[in-house]
Amino acid sequence: MKVVIMAGGKGTRITSIARDIPKPMIKIEGKPVLEHEIECLRNQGFDDIILTVSHLGHIITDYFGDGSGVSPSTGKPFGVKIKYYFEEEPLGNAGALFKIKDKLTEDFLLLNGDVMFDVDFNRFVKYHKEKGGLVTLFTHPNNHPYDSGLIVADDEGVVHKWITKEEARTEYYRNRVNAGLHVISPKVLDKIINTQKVDLDRQLLKPLAGSGKMFVYDSPEYVKDMGTPERYMAVCNDYRLGKVKAKNLQNKQKAIFIDRDGTINKYVGFLRNINDFELLPGVAEAIRLINESGYLAIVVTNQPVIARGEVTKAELEQIHNKMETLLGNEGAYVDRIYYCPHHPHKGYEGEIEEYKIECECRKPKPGLIMKAAKDYNIDLSQSWMVGDGENDIRAGLSAGCKTALIGQEDYDQDLSVSSLLDFVKAVLK
Description:
Layout lengths: L2 E4 L20 E2 L2 E2 H10 L5 E6 L3 H8 L16 E6 L8 H5 L8 E5 L2 E4 L2 H11 L3 E6 L9 E4 L5 E5 L13 E8 L15 H6 L8 E5 L3 E4 L3 H12 L2 H4 L8 E4 L24 H11 L2 E7 L10 H17 L6 E5 L26 H10 L7 E4 L2 H10 L2 E5 L8 E3 L2 H8 L2
Parallel strand pairs: 1-4, 1-6, 4-5, 8-12, 14-15, 14-17, 15-16, 17-18, 18-19
Antiparallel strand pairs: 2-3, 6-11, 7-13, 8-11, 9-10
Helix pairs in contact: 8-12
């Protein structure tokens, strides 16, 4: 599969770091970010690369050469085949794709050249092929969703809405951010564009929202832009600490599984009304520290209100969207939410028959945890289950996790704490 890397960015917001080089050539621990990208791709068998360059493009061509021979400036090979397209005049971030359209005869990877990532691309591409769409977007939560483009998709991954960062957010939203990594069919380039400059998101991708032909690939893997000096420094620190490589799903992950009611939000019995959802004190800080630690933050929650007919799946989604919005406002995010909609006891007015079953996902059974472990290659022996009740502890123990109880009862847990923040400070110190 061909890879197109857009490497023409000027990096106007980060000139204090590097003023006289293209943004993709800014160094992370002595090596340009573009070289980190190419190495990640090469190590997974993606070695057929086209670089689109413009601003100070000769610096990039001098450094990498054709990729297979000896670099003109470094004297080392890179183990890939590189061809270039030079933008003689600005074409936007997608105009060059139409200029190289004849070289893109099959689905291709399209990446930004100024993003630090370590991603299992084979897994990403496999997902794209299984869905059979025109475009698959790599999406993930981040710690600043309020100034990022958001993607709204259903449980099957079909994109229904694309919200740009400039658009008003009139509702609570899921923290699903477009990370700037794509698998694209060349059929997308059949669209007639009457402008010389082409905006990838607004002119090519966003119009596909609601068509049933664009999908999301949600992953907690490391993908971060370096748009500001602060974000650049954060990436450098993450790389030094080994967080970049560690988050690749080829590697075993560790997670902190978190109960919802009474652990994340104030316990009000069966939560049926979105207005009753309220984050507990210190929760956003706790989850932000989990995010920074390298652990995945995964919510696992029983929601029998679905089976009882008291809350619809759509209403539950809005409650969770409120949770993600409130966390995002505080620079925190959860990597995934798993919930059990079942309840075995019958006889409730308005109950949903298909959910009134004995299942394997309702805590104290470990099904939700086991599903997450399979989805994200999680080492359960290095992971924790945190909750405020016996069912949480039993589920964690059955899954092979370490366990922490918010409370003082004895359910054979490894740790007793007063809050989620108390747990985080004890475990991540």
